[in-house]
Amino acid sequence: MAKRVFLIVLDSFGIGEAPDASEWGDEGSNTLCACGTSSKFHIPNMTRLGLLNIEGALNSPYETSLAPVADPQGAFARLTEASKGKDTTAGHWEMAGVISPSRFPTYPDGFPPEIIQAFEEKTGRGVLCNKPYSGTDVIRDFGREHLETGKLIVYTSADSVFQIAAHESLIDPEQLYEYCRIARAILTGPHGVGRVIARPFEGEWPNYERTSRRHDFSLEPTGTTMLDVLKEQGKDVLAVGKIWDIFAHRGMTDHVFTVDNPDGIEKTIAWMDRDFEGLCFTNLVDTDSIYGHRNDVDGYANAISYFDEKLNEILPKLRDDDLLMLCADHGCDPVTPSTDHSREYVPWVIAGPRVRAGVDLGTLPDFTDVAQTILDYLDAPLLEHGTSHLSKIVEA
Predict the structure, then answer these.
(1) Is-contact 304 47, C-beta < 8 A?
(2) Please, are residues 136 and 210 in contact by the beta-carbon 8 Å criterion?
(3) CA dist., res. 325 & res. 288, Å (int)
């Protein structure tokens, strides 16, 4: 029977401050336990698999009723990020085998004049804002001027991003994507931001709403990823959600975009009925983009609880040679005053018919062990970084 791995990233679902959290201003962060302060948080399936048994996962200043189980049914570990970042790009690249040794550039004072001037010249449109801003606030504060003048709303955040917002009635999303490609071509070298993001919106002031037609335009990974290796080996590499964008469309054999987390979950479930050999890589972004960045604890808890409930459909669909892996790319604690990502450990939970129950891998030094274990399981060549734990977690 063909071997399949389903790797699902619960975007920003960190499990406690990393050893260097103080360097990032993230002391005390624990996204998991922050969710545990909400009455909306209900995760019996992930608890049964061993999420709360992960070393240090419940160490936090928050008071919760969360507790480990005596007989976890999955294998599990706590992963430490080796890359110099706490963002989507660095986190996903690392779990795919590429460590980023230096931080992507950020722009707390906005982008320099030479970048904005080049962008305006190549797009033929002026720029509004050009400073760090909340994505919902920026369209409220600049949306009317944008519609009156035709200028593009350009903003950033604490992450390495160049974001372009435009109303769909004025600028078609496909045209907005072209403006993003122009920005991506400009933002190279020392200004090589991790992502250029299209942020289309619609509606009337002051109740503008961002639409589901967001697209990310990432840098290409700086090394060979497990996606590249699997594709070269003739394996299937299926991408659900923004995985296609995060890896700059590289190393995948098929992809599907998603509207929101429920849509991404349903599309992953649908692909579980598909005959393939290789990897299905899913990102569920709402926890980060909608709830984490808005400090919406109940919303975040609800989103994780919804996913946990859907595990009642996902787990029975696992075939004899399937592995299910749950992971995260960074934290975004919705209780701390900051609305930015947090430098945290992330969980790694593995389930499937062949997985040895209760295997505790402890705390691992980087995310690349995910890639190495997947490659090893799929009989593909290993990468430079990381260690495979296949022999510990899977029955021969």
Answers:
(1) no
(2) yes
(3) 19
Tens digit of pLDDT for each residue in 181-199? 999 999 999 999 999 999 9
Q: Look up the CATH number of domain 4-100+222-393.
A: 3.40.720.10
The tokens for 3 are: 């071997």
Strand extents, DSSP E, the chain: 4-10, 75-79, 127-132, 152-156, 161-167, 195-202, 209-210, 215-218, 236-240, 254-256, 278-284, 322-327, 346-351, 360-364
Q: How far apart are CA 103 and CA 92, in angstroms?
A: 14
Compute, in degrees rounded to 10, the torsion defined by CA atoms 33, 38, 40, 45.
20
Note the Cα 110 to chain centre separation in Å: 24
CA separation for the pair 62, 141 (Å, rounded)? 35
Confidence at 239, pLDDT banded by 50, 70, 90: very high
Neighbours of 220 (CB within 10 A): 10
CA angle 277, 382, 265 (to 5 degrees): 40
> Is 249 within 8 Å of 208 (Cβ atoms)?
no
**Structure confidence by residue, pLDDT tens digits, 8-29:** 999 999 999 999 999 999 999 9
368's tokens: 């690349």
What residue ranges do the domains of the chain occupy? 4-100+222-393, 113-218
CA dist 137 and 338 (Å) reads 16
Domain 113-218: which CATH number of 3.40.50.300, 3.90.79.10, 3.30.70.2750, 3.30.70.1250: 3.30.70.1250
Q: What is the Cα–Cα distance from 344 to 116, expressed in whole angstroms?
A: 33
| Residue 350 Cα distances to 158, 326, 353, angstroms | 32, 7, 10
Structure tokens at 209: 């709403």
